[in-house]
Design a protein that fits this description.
Blueprint: H1 4-12, H2 23-32, E1 39-43, E2 46-54, E3 57-63, H3 66-69, E4 87-91, E5 94-98, E6 102-106, H4 117-125, E7 135-139, E8 144-154, E9 177-184, E10 191-196, E11 208-211, E12 223-230, E13 234-238, E14 244-250, E15 253-261, E16 264-270, H5 273-284, E17 297-299, H6 307-319, E18 326-329, H7 350-359, E19 363-368, E20 371-372, H8 379-385, E21 407-408, H9 414-427, E22 435-438, E23 451-452, E24 455-456, H10 464-479, E25 486-488, E26 500-503, H11 511-526, E27 532-533, H12 560-563, H13 569-581, E28 586-588, H14 604-617, H15 619-632, H16 640-643
Parallel strand pairs: 17-18, 17-28, 18-19, 19-22, 22-25, 25-26, 26-27
Antiparallel strand pairs: 1-2, 2-3, 3-16, 4-5, 5-6, 6-7, 7-8, 8-9, 9-15, 10-12, 11-14, 12-13, 13-16, 14-15, 20-21, 23-24
Helix pairs in contact: 9-10, 13-14
Length: 656
């Protein structure tokens, strides 16, 4: 009779069809028999974990704390380690773990003699935070993939300018460390993904990127999805949710440095682009196919102020026989922030309204904020239960004196998340709304210095959108018959699995912003987030005066009540609308008085109608691309680099 240990070794070896055919059985047996899917090594006082997830996917974790090194991956990673097909070996050259695709090598502990000369003098005054660990990842044939060339795990200190982080930690919280790693970067490497950055470039090489949710980022809101995709046959998932600074290509290295962590943890996914996205899908979950209506035209503005106004817009589209699927009700439909009601003076019968709109073949989306003011009917309950993002003394975090919109619910708390969906269902689903706009998911009040249910906000700075969209998605899947659609401002690893479609936030209405949206969107979807769009036309108010750089191609004279003195705005809006037709989601929004396709002048109107109809001609194709994204994890709005990876000329083309 074969022993459990021997059978574990047998499974790891990949015999008897272990692989795609019996992966499930292999994992079950590994777990049932206690088969380790980990290689745990020690270098001085460092614990190094090498943890396979598939033949082409491996996780590396290092820490001065053994229990943190071997702990499970962070939020957003849902896969379980799986070592079938991997083998281990050790020798004078160090420790190795092999699969049919990869070899991970950890160098032996460095024997260091006494420093002499200048090195001795330097060592008297300066030292690194951790011992050196040599780690190399190659393909099975020995070709190099990526090396970890250094790592760090430092207590907050004045030398690094991080001492202030200590003030964001309560005495009961585990110790804070700033953690980072440096990786080899080939001279011809190109780097994509990493979330949303609106500075106007595609390739991150030669750039420094701040991976954080930042509404006030200079180019427009940034979103952190720490998933790097390269042209060198690998992707890298940086498993840390705190604010992270990454640099690419300087001194032959890619570097990641996170404000707070208790380990360095990252995944490497080997293969071509298709394999990289399938690997990301394995680690974080698939991308559900939204309602078909979410692929159609979504009409919105800031804002439709009443039931009668929204119904007039609906009738305007149907009387013109124009295709459209969704109408959106933005903020301030309520009597108080957090009241979760609809002002009866302006929305006298939303149930009847939605019934009529459904009869006209519309879906309706309504904006729901996560904030509550002391005067609303739910604030006291949230306060009593400790369900707010809060300060160290338990006081709910607010934005006073400049922001009077109240405190954010802490949906990282599962009880708060379930309650939140329940009141959304009670107040909006019962009125007939089909989908939800989960606005302000950064959250709006940045969590650094505050505390979440999962821990200090500085340590878990970027996770809120993952939990908040899940609160909607889990509730909708449980309580509604149709597929979930959640419009969300922010994302994180795994948020694509929550039925979310994302957009580039409250951008300005200018030609420069339109130009920058193209590489912005290509990088965001390359981060494993297939659904993204912009506010067509820009969200911010039009400027009081504007001087066109060229003679407008469309006559603005019959749209003055809408565009004021922005003479080339009908042209800008039309170009933006044309771009929007080819985005994963197609949504017009903004702060103009009117925002329907007939609102920008008689010359613009037929062009807008033509492209609106084109979107619907493409719907079968676009919907099939949604299925492809569901099955593969890959985006379907794609930079040229994804499909012409051998063409060096396309590596930095970000405008098509």
């Amino acid at each position: 009779m074969i022993s459990g240990r021997a059978f574990c070794k047998f499974l790891r070896s990949g015999h008897a069809g272990v692989g795609h055919a019996v992966v499930g059985l292999g994992l079950f047996v590994l777990v049932a028999l206690g088969c380790s899917a980990q290689q745990v090594l020690h270098r001085k006082n460092v614990t190094v974990l090498v943890e396979p997830y598939a033949p082409n996917i491996v996780r590396i974790s290092l820490s001065l704390s053994p229990e943190d090194a071997v702990a499970a991956p962070g939020y957003g990673i849902t896969a379980r380690a799986f070592a079938a097909g991997w083998t281990e070996s050790s020798g004078p050259g160090g420790d190795e773990i092999h699969s049919s695709v990869l070899t991970v090598s950890v160098a032996p502990q460095r024997q260091e003699g006494a420093s002499t000369g200048t090195q001795s003098d330097i060592a008297r005054f300066f030292n690194g935070s951790v011992p050196w660990v040599g780690l190399r990842i190659t393909l099975a044939d020995g070709n190099p993939l990526v090396d970890m060339q250094g790592w760090s795990m430092a207590v907050p200190n004045y030398k690094d300018g991080t001492a202030g982080l200590s003030y964001d930690r309560r005495p009961s919280d585990p110790a804070f460390y700033t953690v980072g790693a440096n990786f080899s970067a080939a001279d011809d490497e190109h780097d994509y993904g990493m979330g949303q950055n609106q500075e106007g470039y595609l390739d991150h090489r030669g750039r420094v990127l701040h991976c954080e949710h930042n509404y006030n980022a200079p180019g427009g809101q940034s979103i952190c999805v720490p998933f790097l995709v390269t042209n060198k046959g690998y992707g890298l998932v940086w498993d840390n949710p705190s604010r992270t600074t990454a640099s690419f290509g300087f001194n032959g290295q890619n570097t990641f440095s996170s404000e707070v962590g208790r380990r360095v943890s990252f995944f490497v996914i080997a293969g071509n682009y298709e394999a990289i996205y399938r690997g990301y899908r394995l680690l974080t979950g698939d991308t559900p196919i939204p309602l078909k209506s979410a692929f159609g035209y979504i009409q919105s503005k800031q804002r439709y102020t009443s039931q009668s106004e929204l119904m007039d817009v609906a009738r305007g589209y149907r009387e013109r026989h124009l295709p459209i699927d969704d109408l959106v009700i933005d903020w301030f439909h309520y009597t108080k922030m957090g009241e979760m009601d609809m002002d009866p003076a302006k929305w006298p019968d939303p149930v009847a309204m939605n019934r009529d709109l459904h009869a006209m073949h519309f879906h309706t989306i309504i904006s729901v904020w996560p904030r509550f003011v002391p005067e609303d009917r739910y604030y006291a309950k949230l306060l009593e239960n400790g369900w707010f993002i809060h300060l160290a003394n338990g006081t709910p975090t607010n934005g006073l004196p400049y922001d009077r919109a109240g405190a954010d619910i802490d949906t990282t708390n599962p009880d708060a998340a379930k309650w939140y969906w329940d009141i959304v269902r009670e107040n909006y689903v019962t009125k007939g709304f089909d989908a939800f706009w989960a606005d302000e998911t950064e959250p709006d009040l940045p969590p650094n210095g505050s505390y979440l249910h999962v821990g200090p906000g500085t340590q878990y700075f970027n996770v809120y959108p993952l939990f908040h969209t899940a609160a909607f998605y889990n509730g909708m899947r449980r309580d509604l018959k149709e597929r979930a659609v959640i419009l969300a401002r922010d994302s994180y690893l795994g948020a694509q699995h929550n039925g979310a479609i994302f957009w580039s936030s409250d951008i300005s209405p200018s030609w420069d912003v339109l130009k920058r949206q193209v590489p912005t969107g290509l990088n965001f979807v390359a981060s494993g987030m297939p659904y993204w769009s912009t506010d067509i036309g820009g969200w911010q108010y039009l400027p009081g005066s504007h001087k066109p750089t060229h003679s407008p191609l469309l006559d603005p004279s019959d749209a003055r009540d809408n565009i004021g003195g922005y003479d080339d705005y009908p042209e800008l809006y039309t170009r933006w609308f044309q771009y929007g037709v080819f985005q994963p989601n197609f949504r017009s929004h903004g702060s103009r008085p009117h925002n329907e396709v007939w609102s920008y002048g008689k010359q613009a109107e037929p062009i807008l109608e033509k492209y609106l109809r084109l979107r619907y001609e493409l719907m079968p194709y676009i919907y099939s691309l949604g299925y492809m994204a569901n099955q593969t994890g890959a985006p379907f709005m794609r930079g040229l680099f994804l499909d012409f990876d051998k063409d060096r000329e396309v590596a930095q083309i970000g405008d098509e």
